[in-house]
Structures are given as structure tokens and as C-alpha cells.
Amino acid sequence: MIIIKVIDYHVHSDNSFDGKSDIDSTCQESIKKEVQEICFTEHFSVDPRDVSFGVLDYSKYTCEINEARKKYKKYLLIKKGLEIGEPHLAEYSEELKNFLGGTDLDFIIGSVHNINGVKLRLFMKNKKKYHIYQEYFEEIYKMAETADIDVIGHLDMMKRYAYAEHGNYHIEDHSGIIQNILEKIIQRKIGLEINCSGLNHDVNEIYPKVEILKWYKELGGEILTVGSDSHRSESIASKNGEIMEMVKKMGFQYIYTYESRKRTPFYL
């Protein structure tokens, strides 16, 4: 049996507002688990309404990444990235562009955590199931249209918040907007993240669900990354190996890694 080398392209340290472990301990745990490569993707937003606004000290983050690279260069490949919330918002586009112009990032995840400045778990209040999911996917499409990102993060994460009250969504109910999202990211050469954290939530499946990955492949999509969305060192790459095996069985030949925002195929 060939053992796939594991990588993790969605990792938070205590540089994120909700991260619990520092970069050094996260790297140590990665080495212990024989992970080959990780990319830290700290939360960032230029929207003052977002909980992550103003939290990230980018200079401190950069120093800690550089120190870890020197310390662990023989054992672990370490990349520096961001998970940017709502990077498509026109009213903050200049601030974001100016900030990114002064960075040396390897990788950017674009995620929707808020709609119209409202957290997803609050946005869904007093809405019917169809509209909860449909309006979320419509916001994802807006991001896919214009944002300067490398991958779409946790594409259908609304199910994390809606599941308890409304259950999972039926992909056929939202096939049009989902197909539009997939076609747009393929056109713009934006990748699709497979986020493993849903396996630890009540919904108990990856983000996005497997059916979406199948549609993506049928449409010609091939740019995938795999991330644990770890916020504690002990959860680094917790399900990544089995998901990489699953992706291979689905017919994908590789996932992707990034350096200076240029992607490279990582053969499975």
C-alpha cells in the first residue's frame, strides 16, 4: 500500500482571534504526526464589522513564521497564508489591495463568514431553509466573481450553523447557483478547498460535500487544497490523510500547494 504524504493548507495559530496554540507548538505537533507541509492561514478582515478586524499583527506573524522555518527546515515545509473574510466587498477593496501589496504571502483562502456584516449563525435567524442556503451560496458567487484569492474556503459551511434547526441542504435545490460558482472558479483558476473540519461537527461531512466535488471534476475542475481548519495544535491534519485518499479514489491525480501565490501540483 502506498502511503500518501500528508499536507495541511488551513491552519490557525494564536495569531488568529480564535486560535489556541502558537506557531511553534503547531509545528512540533505537525512533525510528530509526520506531516510534510503546512500552511498557516490566519484570520484577516478589513471590514470593521468582522470579529477578526484589527486582531492580526502581521509583523509578529511574519517573524514567528521565519523563526519556525529556520528551526524546523529539515523536518517541515512551512508556508504563510491568510484566510480573508469577505474579500470581495467593494467598499473595502482599496484597503485590502493596499494591505496585500505590502505582504509576501504564499496563499490566500477566501471565505464567507458574514453576510451584510452579520455572522452566519445570526443571518439565518427567521429565514426559511431554502433562503438560508441560497443566499449564502449567492454571497459565495459574488466572492468567486471578483476576489483576489487562491481558493474558496469551506464552500458550503452554512450547513454547520443551519444543520441543528434545518438539517443539511439538498444539492438539487441549489444546483444552479452551485454550478455557477464552480464554473466561475474554474474560469478564474481559483481552487476549491476541501475543509475537513465538518467531520468534527454535527453535520459530520466535509465542506463541501462529496457531490459538489464530483460536479467540480465533471466540469473540468482540478485545483484542490486540503485543510483541517485546525485551531489547536492537536487537531492538525486530523483527517487530511483519509480525505487525500478519498480524493485520489475519485480520480483526482493531485492536490495543490502554493508558494508566493503560485500553485504547484502535489501528486497523490
UniProtKB/TrEMBL annotation:
Pathway(s) where this gene product acts: Amino-acid biosynthesis; L-histidine biosynthesis; L-histidine from 5-phospho-alpha-D-ribose 1-diphosphate: step 8/9
The entry's keywords: Amino-acid biosynthesis, Histidine biosynthesis, Hydrolase
Organism: Sebaldella termitidis (strain ATCC 33386 / NCTC 11300)
GO terms under cellular component: cytoplasm
GO terms of molecular function: histidinol-phosphatase activity
Family according to the record: Belongs to the PHP hydrolase family. HisK subfamily.
Family matches, as InterPro entries: Histidinol_P_phosphatase_HisJ, PHP_dom, Pol/histidinol_Pase-like
Biological classification of the source: Bacteria, Fusobacteriati, Fusobacteriota, Fusobacteriia, Fusobacteriales
Designated name of the protein: Histidinol-phosphatase
